[in-house]
Amino acid sequence: MMSDAGFTEDQKRWLQGFVSGANAARTARGLAGIGGPAPGAAAPTALAAAGPARGPDAIHHAAMARFEAAGRKLSPQEIAKRDEHPHDAYARLKAEARTGRFPKPMDDFRWRFHGLYFVGPAQNAFMCRLRIPNGILSHWQFRTVAAIADRWGGGYAHATTRSNLQIREIAAEHGPDLIEALAMAGLTPKGSGADNIRNVTGSPTAGIDPDELIDTRPHALDWHMHVLESRTLHGLPRKFNVAFDGGGRVAVLEETNDIAFQAVAVRAGFGVEPGIWYRLALGGITGHKDFARDTGVVVRPEETTAVADAIVRVFIEHGDRTDRKKARFKYVLDAFGFDRTLQLVEEKLGRPLTRLPAEAIQPRRPIDRFAHVGLHRQAQPGLNWLGVVLPVGRMTTAQMHGLADIAATFGDGDIRLTVWQNLLVSGIPDAMVAAATARLAALGLTHEASSIRAGLVACTGSRGCKFAAADTKGDALAIAEALEGRIALDQPVNIHLTGCHHSCAQHFIGDIGLIATRVALDASGEDTVDGYHIHVGGGFAERAAIAREIFPSTPATEAPARIEGLLLAWLGHRTSADETFQAFVQRHTIETLRGLCDAATPQPTREAAE
Q1: 338 CB-contact burial (10 Å; exposed 0-12 / middle 13-18 / buried 19+)
Q2: How are strands ordered across the β-sheet holding 293-299?
Q3: How many whole angstroms separate alpha carbon 240 and alpha carbon 233?
Q4: Phi and psi of 517, rounded to 5°?
Q5: Angle between helices 559-573 and 472-484 (to 10 degrees)
Q6: Which of residues 309 and 17 earns the better pLDDT score?
Q7: d(Cα 607, Cα 437) in Å, to the nearest integer?
Q8: Distance between CA 169 and CA 125 in Å, rounded?
Q9: pLDDT in tens, 94-105
Q10: Rounded to whole angstroms, how far apart are CA atoms 571 and 52?
């Protein structure tokens, strides 16, 4: 290697770390390491040696090298990204598609960078997840997704808990066809899976909400485009979520994201221009029982992309590349603390962040837990949005074409997806409401929902996900059908069913949250059935809380009666008609709640359990 006399100490340390990592990677492939050329080859120069780490992937390769220099082993996914960046593998993806074969594990990981997930053995097919900034798309784009799902998918789509759409049952040979058809419609699945910044969520009622502080659409779109056009922001240590909440009526669940931008009104007299800013919260990951926490930092709306970029780059440099279970941004915050992490962000930005005391921020309005379903007046006089109920997020393509017709004929042409696995049709004039709802009913859909169905959320489950231990969507519908004819609620109650530890349905934030497990039928444990660990007391927005486990290992067939018992116990023992389910369960111990639930649970289930 050439002399390092011209380098600073930081540059020297970086080069030493990179060379160590490059040597380890080359040795693993049976090649000579840097500084030890192959027989007959000239010794490489330092510039040539550093070649692979110059450019957009340099920050990632340098981070990998530092772990290896410290004697730690990279995860297989990190090695796969270094050996062949997934975005450089699209030609191979197309070639593999022509053979009709699904990918081997590391290519399965790489193909997720293009939005394709192999979901075997649950389905011998790909699933494709899109990117829809702020969850809003035009009626013609929505119709195109339906046509694509008809031609290359299973004839249906799922609305997700990130204001997004999934197409399923895609044959191996049609993955590239589907990706390219989406691109022709101005849509993309790029970076919607694996170690990337996922779909950017924002307020579904942005620009039409009477209560909103700011329209999140331009800021979500700016961040979306920045991510798509910045190769450096792909291939992170693990996935990363960003959300923008404009302060409107529909919850965005921004506190469950790695970065949460929360619109706030700043009062005068605190040394900054009063008006609407975004408050910055960091570290949300409810599957790991953590919400994003307020940093005391406020960000001008036009600076959100720059701040988010700096935060992600800190994560790229310091996120764990060796242990996938500890690779999320939360663990960088846990290791460094918020103050040190924010200092690193400021170094990336090249300027200090703006900090304000809590008293500088005006209180925000509470969210409306029913605003995502039903008919609601918009900020624009004479116009309304219609919240359409989708049974646990599933739509047939015929229904999708019909919804596109409703949006084009009676509304402003937009389809607005929410984190509640449903959608809104906006811009419906008062005179058109009756015709729109009648057309909706003709599709077998409704805008009216019980307190059970309005807050019913379920992940894909074992019908379409290899990780799930139960049929969450089927069980969610069974719960709704069992309870709606037996119990009347005067308040909304959220029931979330998730199939595995990934917690896509965020069971920890539900009033009642269920995470799937296999339940043994006898002491041998050989025979098992679908079941759930049942939790209570979760919440979001101004009532954010992590639920506590109350009934472990409950067979799925017994879950409806258990939930009925919990709801009857609440209705029978709450302090007033205003006491929420969450408040009720939070003021009792788990032991007391079990007793109250057992006393209220329908007798046949208790006898079956015994």
Answers
A1: middle
A2: 201-202, 242-245, 259-266, 275-282, 293-299, 354-355
A3: 10
A4: -155, 165
A5: 50
A6: 309
A7: 44
A8: 5
A9: 999 999 999 999
A10: 64
Residues 492-550: pLDDT tens digits?
A: 899 999 999 889 989 999 999 999 999 998 888 888 999 999 999 999 988 999 999 99
Coil, strand or helix at 69: helix
Can you tell me the distance from the alpha carbon of 77 to that of 114, in angstroms, rounded to the nearest whole number?
A: 15
Over the stretch 389-409, which tens digit does the pLDDT of each residue have?
999 999 999 999 999 999 999
Q: What Rg value do the Cα atoms of the chain yield, rounded?
A: 26
What three-state secondary structure class fits 251?
coil
Task: Name the strands in the sheet holding 165-170, side by side, starting at the edge strand that comes first in the sequence.
Answer: 116-118, 126-129, 165-170, 156-159, 394-396
**Structure-derived torsion over alpha carbons of residues 97, 99, 101, 103, reported in degrees to the nearest 10:** -50
Q: Do 504 and 486 touch, CB atoms closer than 8 A?
A: no
- Whose structure tokens read 């410290």? 70
Could you give the CA distance from residue 436 to residue 442 in angstroms, rounded to a whole number?
10
Which DSSP letter does residue 112 get? G
Q: Is the dihedral of CA 19, 21, 24, 25 positive or negative?
A: negative
Which residue is it, tokens 């997840």?
Answer: 129
| Termini Cα distance of the chain | 74
Q: Which residue has the tokens 């084009």?
A: 408
* Tokens of residue 95, six digits: 């070639």
